[in-house]
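Obj.: predict assembly geometry.
Materials: sequence records (below).
Method: joint structure prediction, all chains together.
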Amino acid sequence: MSSATTGRSRRGAASRGVPYLFLAPAIVLFLLFLLLPVGYAVYLSLRKVKVSGLGLGRNSRTEIFAGLENYRTALSDPELWGSAGRVVAYGLTLLPIMLGLALLFALLLDRPRVRLARFSRLAIFLPYAVPGLIASMLWGFLYLPAVSPFTDLAGWLGLPAPDPLTGGSVFFAIVNIAVWGGVGFNMIVLFTSLRAIPAEIYESARLDGCTEFQLAVRIKIPLLLPSLIMTTVFSLIATLQVFTEPLTVRSLTNSISSTWTPLMKIYRDAFAQNDIYSAAASSVLIAGVTLVVSFGFLRLVQRQAFGGENR
Amino acid sequence: MTALATSVPVTDGAAPAPDRRRNRRRSAWLPTALLLIGAVYCLLPLAWVVAASTKSGSSLFTTFTFAPGGDLLANFGELSSYGGGVYWKWLINSLIFAGVGGLLSAFVSGLSGYTLAKFRFPGRDAIFNVLLAGVLVPGVTLAIPQYLLLAKVGLTDTYWSVLLPSILSPYGIYLARIYAAAAVPDTVIEAARTDGATEGRIFGRVALPMMLPGLVTVFLFQFVAIWNNFLLPFVMLSDDDKFPVTVGLFTLLNQGQTVPALYSVVIIGVLISIVPLIALFLTLQRYWRLDLVSGAVKG
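Observations (raw structure tokens):
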């Protein structure tokens, strides 16, 4: 794969710039819309507003250097810790359920003699086409006792109507929305990698009387490991950023606070309370944690995907 | 990877032949049933929104969940006339953001992926790693400073404020690089160079067509990502007329808290908003190279 570039010397200095020219659009966009905003967030996180006098005049509010004050405030803020703890619990609940179901469905789809597999595959994948905001609205309405089918069901059985939007169960209501939206995509990714495994591998095992269950546990799951790591990383990153679902369900219930997740708190600080400095500090902290958590995983994934490419 | 399979212990002795033959004909009922339960779970909210869109605002909360009503056309009319037809503007805006953003993103990803896969130059790995690290930066860390920076140059509340930050897709570059490495042979590039073609022509006329199936996948991913994105337009835009359908419906839902009659408008709006993406999926299904996602492409 490296031979494509051997002709370079013949063309001289002009063509040596070609790769950089081709990468220029991506690099410019990266600098303007990724690096610059991140740098600006770090800068803002080290600043604060100083109010002089009564804070009424045009020049009475000046921005000054604050050192690590915003970070100290953020780290001693029980609201931030509360929301961070909630997201950790959310991730620990969501990821095993979502990825476990995705793996189960992918393995079931890959089994021979399964009826209606095409229909089931499509139906389970369909929620991927539904934006998180819309999914939250759909489930949000279905959670309302006046709309929920479980209200009627409980009525027939003589049980009290469930109300998923009250108290602690709202946590699981949000988890359910994310599971619904995420299972299908991860299932398809895993199913596609299963299909890429040559069928001959299974043949001899089947001839030796290996059951489909043993086949799945002993052969398919180990071979799926790289794809599982990959889907875990991407799900993890998405989980730490949960924002849309609780924000939307909040329109239908009082049991979700405006600081339910870290990103909701950051959003509120920046736009509702106009405190962009502490919002910047909190978002830098969250970004740092995300980087640390997912970087190890990503290294692994990258080695897997590009291990065979000639460098 | 095949080495793994050979080391797996298997049970001794084959099952008796008649037994096995019967097994082959029999359907796997348990897996079928489990998958159908999954399918029903996934279709449930969609079935509800179809039923609910036919109900009037009052019967929405009084009739059985999946019982249809007779007010589909009335609801549709109400949605169309809401705010002077602003809903249709939202839908068109979503199409513009996702369509234009997806196309630009596929092109930039294709060009970058091709370059990273097919050229050797100082700093290649560093550039790739830095671009890829962009995946890890959380959305809100970006959205707020992006808003403040775009405000400084007067671009907030414009189409650009949503389009420009949506073009760069680290994940798209990653996919395009895998695909270019597998789909564009070095010999073809070398032959074009010998014929004296410029690098730009080689990419545009030779590599790009070969990468098309992979780039369709990148386009679809980015289309869905932009269509589904809520945070960025929510932060950037304040003028109703520029909202994509997600932000528009969110503002409607919030008004529903004080005007419950709006709920039936929201529900039919939700139904119509999911039709384009589902149609796109069903028609473009076979062009999806989802094996790219798991890096399973063989060169």
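Conclusions so far: Chain B has one domain: 81-292.
To do: check interface contacts against the pulldown list.
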